[in-house]
Design a protein that fits this description.
Blueprint: H1 2-26, H2 50-61, E1 64-69, E2 72-77, H3 80-89, H4 101-106, H5 116-132, H6 138-156, H7 166-181, H8 191-207, H9 210-217, H10 220-224, H11 229-253, H12 262-272, H13 283-296, H14 299-303
Antiparallel strand pairs: 1-2
């Protein structure tokens, strides 16, 4: 009985300490609903209609309010004016990226989830290189038109019969991206290509599941619990291994006087800065950048 009493007292003290820490932090943050220990405000959010929950909060606390997702405070900007003021009026303060545990597990480096100086340098290199490769110019338009012709030929094969075009519509932007980073496209029935797109599609579904959102809130679950986040990791690992194979192929055929694609430009820059210990031009960062482009240029376009 004494042991139970001691445990109850310890738990009570921990909860009071947690509440005190939260209260001190909340004083520096925008107003919001009072969180509960451990779960925060999750119980006040309708997971089937999150937008309506945020609308209700904004009516009480204004267009900028704080929610606790688990023990993590999250400042919510609600409405066009609040978002415009933050991203345009205070762009420098808001250009950072929040840590998302599920992506920390699978992505090391890249543009999408990096921060600070590394993010600025990586972003600058990416934009500069993509412009050299034709982004926003006639040459990239030629790649798109060429891929559109392949799409039309593939659709002709259906002879007007009912057909689900979801897969080949995903192939089109993916092949345009591949022409930039690999300097080659894939046939729509290429087994490596099909396998990669299937894994990307599966990952998109996994990322939208409730379990992954729970893992992002209570990230200790990622390391110690089974779940579909492990499938996500496996799929991303397959993609990154494929990208690493492509990088090694480029290393063998690299001509520093005649870069062919994004990988070549990066490898040349890596050689130029190989003595700089702070350099962003590492193999890990290259794989992260290629993953960002492969996923961002395929799954997000397909979703639209």
């Amino acid at each position: 009985m004494d042991l139970v009493l001691v445990l109850v007292l310890i738990l009570t003290c921990l909860l009071l300490l947690s509440h005190w820490k939260w209260s001190s932090k909340r004083g520096k943050l925008p107003p919001g609903p009072t969180p509960l220990p451990i779960i925060g405000n999750i119980h006040q959010i309708n997971v089937k209609n999150v937008h309506q929950s945020f609308t209700n909060f904004s009516k009480i606390y204004g267009p900028v309010f704080t929610l606790y997702l688990g023990m993590k405070p999250t400042v919510v900007l609600y409405g066009y004016e609040a978002i415009k003021e933050a991203l345009i009026g205070h762009g420098e303060e808001f250009n950072g990226r929040a840590r998302i545990p599920i992506f920390d597990m699978v992505l090391k480096g890249g543009v999408a989830f990096s921060n600070g100086k590394a993010w600025k340098e990586t972003r600058h290199f990416s934009f500069t290189t993509l412009r050299k490769l034709g982004m926003g110019q006639r040459s990239i338009e030629n790649h798109i038109q060429e891929e559109a012709r392949f799409l039309v030929e593939e659709l002709k094969k259906t002879n007007g019969s009912p057909y689900d075009p979801t897969f080949i519509l995903a192939c089109v932007p993916c092949n345009v991206v591949c022409s930039i980073i690999f300097q080659n496209r894939f046939e729509y029935k290429d087994q490596d290509f099909v396998s990669l797109l299937e894994k990307l599609n599966e990952n998109a579904k996994i990322l939208s599941t409730l379990w992954v959102q729970v893992c992002n809130i209570f990230h200790v679950l990622i390391d110690y619990c089974p779940g579909n986040h492990n499938t996500l990791y496996k799929n991303f690992t397959c993609l990154q291994n494929y990208l690493l194979t492509k990088i090694k192929e480029h290393e063998k055929s690299l001509d520093v006087t005649n870069p062919r694609d994004f990988i070549d430009y990066f490898l040349i820059k890596e050689m130029q800065e190989n003595r700089n210990p702070q350099s962003i031009y590492t193999r890990e960062n290259l794989i992260g950048m290629l993953t960002d482009m492969f996923v961002g240029g395929t799954e997000t376009i397909k979703a639209n």
